[in-house]
């Protein structure tokens, strides 16, 4: 099916106001506005250090 063949007449238009009311979720938990998600690589010794400091909290 081509995009032109899809009937979009019953789908409401999303406005900027509607997007402003949205929330971002990661694994089902709401991420507060102003936070940035990042990925970084750490040396295994650094990870083990912080795991040891966390104790039972993991």
Question: How does this model look, in words?
Answer:
By secondary structure, this protein is an alpha+beta fold. The chain has one domain (7-57). Helix content is 28%, strand content 10%. It is built from two helices and two strands. Strands 1-2 form a two-stranded antiparallel sheet. The radius of gyration is 21 Å and the shape is elongated. It starts with 15 loop residues before the first helix and ends with a helix.
Describe this structure in a few short sentences:
This protein is α+β, with helices and mostly antiparallel strands and 58 residues long.
Q: Would you report the number of β strands? A: 2
Give me the number of helical elements: 2
- What gap, in angstroms, lies between the N and C termini? 49 Å
Choose one word for the global shape.
elongated
Helical percentage:
25-40%
| Side-by-side strand order of the widest sheet | 1-2
Class derived from helix and strand content: alpha+beta
Based on the structure, what is the oligomeric state of the protein chains? single chain
SSE series: HEEH
- Percentage beta strand: 5-15%
Taking pLDDT < 50 over at least 5 consecutive residues as the criterion, the unreliable ranges are none
Topology:
Layout: H1 16-20, E1 24-26, E2 29-31, H2 44-54
Antiparallel strand pairs: 1-2
Features:
28% helix, two-stranded antiparallel ribbon, alpha+beta
